[in-house]
């Protein structure tokens, strides 16, 4: 299948990946695999900016709202299912699109996952207990001591990521970062990587507008519907955890909305930092005409 090509569209949140992906899918008469891990969940639509019904009708998408927040679903599960779906799609199409800004999920499909040693379940149980009793700050400090390299890269506000890294550090006696980038899976398709970007001020402006639109579209009602499940890991994400604080009576609504905007800006910054490290990505301005990207893809696919 080395004559088959996966076109990966990446970039920060709110940059316009969905519309670009649809334009390319229409041109190549193909389908789209979503690599946005927040859009996997049926209960999360407004707060994750799931493509509209019109957008979903314009090009067939896969891995959009296909599971419940109550289901355990890992990046490894996504890798397995996405590769199976690609094998199926490549029987009908020479090109397939993958669109999304979840860097680890994109990496899993393109390169395969890093392999980690097995760790006793009691280690994670103890870390979860620490989180419950002392909060995340002590765990953050512990990670900085055991693996300063990874502590620089990881979202330290994400308890799931912090605990996962500590679990490996404690269980193996080695830094979590020492297990990263230690393997690369063979893929039977070619890959072309496209990145969309814009000046930081413009990205932040687009984020602010998107959050305001989410509130208009009914984000509060959506969060209210999942409030009783707020302890689930899938819901520990920007746009939901801040509104939970409002419903808990800890924050005003205005403050919660301001925090969503701030945390989304931070998220976009981390996305750009992640993708900028990949020298194979060809970057285009967010408002580029799709034809310019198509010309680049066609050039890359042409025999030379």
TrEMBL record:
Record key words, sorted: ATP-binding, Magnesium, Nucleotide-binding, Transferase, tRNA processing
Enzyme Commission code: 2.5.1.75
Residue span of region Interaction with substrate tRNA: 36-39
SUPFAM superfamilies: P-loop containing nucleoside triphosphate hydrolases
UniProt site positions, description: Interaction with substrate tRNA: 102, 124
Residue positions binding substrate: 13-18
Binding site for ATP: 11-18
Pfam families assigned: IPPT
Cofactor: Mg(2+)
Chemical reaction(s) catalysed: adenosine(37) in tRNA + dimethylallyl diphosphate = N(6)-dimethylallyladenosine(37) in tRNA + diphosphate
Family: Belongs to the IPP transferase family.
Subunit structure: Monomer.
Job description of the protein: Catalyzes the transfer of a dimethylallyl group onto the adenine at position 37 in tRNAs that read codons beginning with uridine, leading to the formation of N6-(dimethylallyl)adenosine (i(6)A).
Full protein name: tRNA dimethylallyltransferase
Gene name of the record: miaA
């Amino acid at each position: 299948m080395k004559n088959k090509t996966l076109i990966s569209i990446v970039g920060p949140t709110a940059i316009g990946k969905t519309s670009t992906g649809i334009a390319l899918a229409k041109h190549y008469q193909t389908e789209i695999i979503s690599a946005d891990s927040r859009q996997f969940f049926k209960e999360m639509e407004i707060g994750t900016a799931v493509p509209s019904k019109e957008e979903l009708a314009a090009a067939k998408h896969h891995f959009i709202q296909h599971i419940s927040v109550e289901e355990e679903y890992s990046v490894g599960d996504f890798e397995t299912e996405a590769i199976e779906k690609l094998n199926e799609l490549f029987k009908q199409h020479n090109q397939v699109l993958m669109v999304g800004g979840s860097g680890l999920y994109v990496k899993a499909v393109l390169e395969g996952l890093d392999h980690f040693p097995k760790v006793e379940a009691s280690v994670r149980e103890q870390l979860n207990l620490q989180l419950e009793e002392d909060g995340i700050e002590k765990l953050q400090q512990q990670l900085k001591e055991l693996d300063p390299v990874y502590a620089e890269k990881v979202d330290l506000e994400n308890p799931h990521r912090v605990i996962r890294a500590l679990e490996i550090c404690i269980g193996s006696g080695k830094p979590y970062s020492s297990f990263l980038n230690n393997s690369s899976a063979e893929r039977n398709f070619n890959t072309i990587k496209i990145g969309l970007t814009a000046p930081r001020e413009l990205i932040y402006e687009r984020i602010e507008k998107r959050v305001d639109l989410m509130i208009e579209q009914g984000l509060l009602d959506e969060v209210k519907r999942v409030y009783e499940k707020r302890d689930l890991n899938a819901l520990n994400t920007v746009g939901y955890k801040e509104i939970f604080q409002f419903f808990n009576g800890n924050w005003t609504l205005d403050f919660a909305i301001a925090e969503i905007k701030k945390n989304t800006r931070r998220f976009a910054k981390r996305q750009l930092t992640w993708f900028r490290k990949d020298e194979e990505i060809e970057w285009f301005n967010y408002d580029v005409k799709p034809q310019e990207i198509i010309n680049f893809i066609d050039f890359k696919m042409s025999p030379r």
